[in-house]
Amino acid sequence: MPVSLPTQRGKAEECPPCHIRRGHFDRLVLFLLALRIHFDALRLAPGPYLTACKWWLLRKRVRARGQFAPLLTRSSRAYKRWVLQQAQIAVPSPPGAPVIIALVACPTGASGLEETLASLAAEGVHVLIVGDDPAADLARLADLPYWGCEAWLLPLFAGDRLAIGAARAYRAAMGEPGVTAIFADDDLSDLLGRRTAPHFKPDWNAELFRHHDYLTGACILRVGYDGLATAAEAGAGWAGALVDRAVAEGGGAVHLRQVLHHRRQRPQPCLPLPAVSIAPALPRITAIIPTRNRMDLLATCINGLAAADYPEIEAIVVDNDSDDPSTVAFLAALPGHSRPGLTIRVMRHPGTFNYSAINNRAVAEATGELLCLLNNDVEMLAPDWLAIMATQALRDEVGAVGAQLLYPDGRLQHAGVVIGVGNAAGHAHRFLKPDEEEGYFRRHALPQFVSAVTAACLVVKRERFLAVGGLDENSFAVAFNDVDLCLRLNGRGWQSFYEPRAVLVHHESVSRGPDRDPVGATRFASELAALQHRWRTDEVFDPYHHPHLSRASEQFALAI
């Protein structure tokens, strides 16, 4: 039977001396926890920890922070320290706040209901328990006097608890017009109340949600009678059905970047992934491959492109002053390898290496509806990679599509780009071992919208590339041109897309080499400054990342 639960009583106000003593004690606890976290990091990974210390002592602070962040997060005490650092912020409920009704799933045998009801009582939330017959229980909801168009539903599971102030935080976000779903971050809580495994979620990401339900059990929904009927028909999956209905009606969900739910368990990512349904009529695609010497790398790349299961490919190899005799001979012979379905031609682009100018010039002569920007040091592992990427690039809402790129040793080199990492942009989940490590909620293994992808292997519609003006030759000759392109495409409503089912090996600028000379370092500094000026990457955070994840690490490490 539904019950209306009382609100929490306020705390007695502490005297100032108590506040002072408590402040000193809290600082001491945080300091001691920090020491234990560093000790844990040293014990778990002594070599990498000492390397990070070395960079810190050498005043290479950015590099040191980037190496410390994932090491410190490994400590079981890291999240405990983060929790202690967070102050409880009271969020006043607006006048005439809508009713919140918690639908608590409690089938026979479920435990933890008392804890759940106690947390709901503290938040002043109405309750309806949904047992073994969801259809009948949800039908009772429609008869409640406080149910109506202004009521919001909060699907929970027995054993889950709301954080202090969760209802107020949700109510404060309900006034936005057209919103039908609001979700929050969460963590896990055991029988003793110990909190672990925080999930700091991205903002609404429709593609990620298709493969990982990160809303159900940690969201609040506004649905009508039709949505309630749909959920009742779903049986045991009623909570997910409510979420799907609310998201569809509102065109997405609003994210509250706060840990508002302490949970016993969560929905898991849907792995293994289903195969991509390849578009029935793939259009002609132009692959653009800048190169300089290193015939061995280029030959591997061309062979992989030729082996791609794709109906019509135009390959434009742009030579930037190759002077190795074997490479020159190879380039001269390349057009002769053209065949039905594959046309190869070589374009000369002499002078200082300018990646943006090289690609823009080739695009001007490309005949494909799609473009594939491709580094010469990329190695293909399966023939379906290009068709998979092209299929995603043909979607109305998609701009640039990036593949999963591996280092030759099998570690991740690219799984999307995060804006703001290192105050610039970094490759998500870099150096993760995808076959051995779970990473951050398996994000590296799931298709999703991202802020940017690398041009080492990028597919985009030619008309969209041209619509935003192509690559910026003046501000981003070598570095960050792909990030800038993707952000401009995003601004036109063509969102960047990471596709992990297209897997390639990237030897990462082997033929060009790193920029360690003074000229290269100066150019890089100029391009970094341009990126920060244009996109404020030293200030903003990536909506597909999170403010509580470290800006120093590409591995989604807790910021402590």
TrEMBL record:
InterPro entries linked: Glyco_trans_2-like, Nucleotide-diphossugar_trans
SUPFAM superfamilies: Nucleotide-diphospho-sugar transferases
UniProt-recorded Gene Ontology molecular function terms: transferase activity
Protein name: Glycosyltransferase
Keyword Transferase tagged: yes
Taxonomic lineage: Bacteria, Pseudomonadati, Pseudomonadota, Alphaproteobacteria, Sphingomonadales
Key words of the record: Transferase
Residue ranges constituting the Glycosyltransferase 2-like domain according to the UniProt record: 287-409
Species for this entry: Erythrobacter mangrovi
Keyword Lyase: no
